[in-house]
Write a structure and sequence with these properties.
There is one protein chain. This protein has 330 residues and is of the alpha/beta class. It is built from 8 helices and 10 strands. It has a single domain, classed as NAD(P)-binding Rossmann-like Domain (Rossmann fold), CATH 3.40.50.720. α2 links the parallel β1 and β2. The protein is globular, with a radius of gyration of 20 Å.
Length: 330
């Protein structure tokens, strides 16, 4: 899709087309809410139908979101994650809580284009059409900018931007083929809006800023198909459990050296994790937050349910900040 320099003057630019909102179209307004009772209208406003894919759904934030979707009526759920043991445990817990729903897991590397396409196709075979995507899978890396190699940089960007795009594209294709509306929610970060402090993490910040731009671009391009694309910016601290896979994997660059080796992977659920080595940073993060604390996993669920339900039917290309006001004082 790239154009050689010699062909630039002869190229014809593709153009984005918009929806027209006409009755019966994929961009038409939703049908009126039921009139039988206020309670029925309230319930229908946040009712969720259909099937969802949640990448990184085995981590605490992803798992809380899965619970919330199922509580509001989700019929089928597929978790994409890289840790089968933890994901299967999560699936079992959800199946016990929601016996009427179809809940499955697939091991998926979101940077593997063919693997992603195959996993989405398999999901459609197992569950039926997918109309909801929650994109939690990600990677954060901390290290001084002078120590970064191209390989390490690409690793972070590939997971956070390319990986998120590959899953969204594969799902969008199935939705467009079937002519169904849907909602996609990307989990961004305050680091995509401001330079977080005190940790140096330029590749992560750039990748999350890329997610911000990607959401806007996809929202504009796919709206005509009835696909809304939004993001939720979080600022969450959750517990680290040894051996538990999570939506975001963190690594730090080793002390500056010609080889720039990486430390052993530290598995976390967000950009923030627990441990004595981060005690000073955690205190600093909390001290800059108007609420004096980091968020709890379920505090993200309200925004996600809104975006996935009728309540968010006119929200597209938006960023919902769920950060306790952290970005006020970055």
């Amino acid at each position: 899709m790239t154009t050689d320099r010699s062909d630039l003057t002869a190229r014809v630019l593709p153009q984005i087309s918009l929806g027209d909102g006409s009755p019966g179209s994929l961009t038409a307004p939703p049908l009126p809410l039921p009139r039988e009772s206020p309670a029925a209208r309230a319930q229908e406003r946040f009712h969720i139908t259909g099937n969802a894919i949640v990448t990184g759904g085995a981590g605490d934030l992803g798992f809380a979101a899965c619970n919330a979707l199922l509580e509001h009526g989700l019929e089928g759920l597929m978790i994409f994650d890289m840790n089968p043991a933890e994901a299967q445990a999560r699936v079992k817990a959800l199946e016990t809580e929601f016996p009427g729903a179809k809940i499955r897991f697939l091991k998926v590397d979101v940077t593997d284009e063919d693997g992603v396409n195959a996993a989405v196709d398999e999901t459609v075979k197992l569950l039926g059409s997918v109309s909801i995507l929650l994109s939690f899978a990600g990677m954060v890396a901390c290290g001084h900018a002078l120590d970064w190699s191209a390989k390490d940089w690409n690793r972070v960007v590939n997971v956070n931007t390319i990986g998120g795009f590959l899953v969204a594209r594969a799902i969008a294709r199935t939705m467009i083929e079937r002519g169904i509306r849907g909602s996609m929610v990307f989990i961004a970060s305050i680091s995509g809006h401001r330079v977080n402090f005190p940790q140096p993490q330029v590749s992560y910040n750039v990748s999350k800023a890329g997610v911000v731009a990607m959401v806007k671009s996809l929202a504009g391009e796919w709206a005509k198909y009835g696909i809304r694309v939004n993001r939720v910016t979080d600022n969450f601290l959750v517990k680290l459990f040894k051996g538990v896979a999570a939506p975001e994997t963190c690594f730090r660059l080793q002390n500056p050296s010609p080889k720039k080796k990486l430390l052993t992977f530290v598995v976390v659920n967000t950009i923030l994790n627990e441990g004595d080595g981060l005690d000073e940073a955690r205190k600093m993060w909390a001290s800059r937050n108007p609420m004096g604390r980091m968020g709890e996993p379920d505090e993200l669920s309200g925004a996600i349910v809104t975006l996935a339900s009728r309540a968010g039917s006119y929200i597209n290309g938006s960023d919902i900040l769920v950060d306790g006001g952290q970005t006020l004082f970055m």
